[in-house]
């Protein structure tokens, strides 16, 4: 039997090679699903449907992060607006004094007290943050130093 196969292969080498290549291509094209590297899991291969699921998941996650970032930016813009308003108020007082306007001692006292109050509030928030970090580092207990 092997002799007859060898004889056939010797006489039909081109046909045998073509048959092997055709079988290999059919197995490759129809038997092996196309895969690419995963977007989220290094070393894992995914097919087209799994890639679409990963893409939608990542888009949803990034959308949530973008919303959070926009909220933070809006809060920071409000802070910038308040700072600019304070600077403008100080500039108006300086302009009134420079133009020889009447100095209102009560207005100046209120302004100074307001600035001091803002400074104290900012300072206390910074101190509270430091205390909170130290408490967290000590396991929630107060430091004795």
Structure description:
The protein has 145 residues and is an all-alpha fold. The chain has two domains: 64 residues; 41 residues, no CATH class. It has a two-stranded antiparallel sheet with strand order 1-2. The longest helix is centred in the middle third of the chain and has 51 residues. The radius of gyration is 38 Å and the shape is rod-shaped.
Features:
mainly alpha, 145 residues, 2 domains, 3% strand, single chain
Summarize the structure.
By secondary structure, the chain is mainly α.
- Read across the widest sheet, the strand sequence of neighbours is 1-2
- Measured by DSSP, the beta-strand proportion falls in under 5%
Number of domains: 2
How far is it from the N-terminal to the C-terminal residue, by CA?
A: 95 Å
User: Using DSSP, what is the number of strands?
Assistant: 2
Percent helix:
over 70%
Radius of gyration: 38 Å
- SS-based structural class? mainly alpha
Largest sheet, in brief, is:
2 strands, antiparallel
Low-confidence stretches: none
Average pLDDT figure = 81
Give the SSE order as H and E letters.
HHEEHH
How would the global form be characterised?
rod-shaped
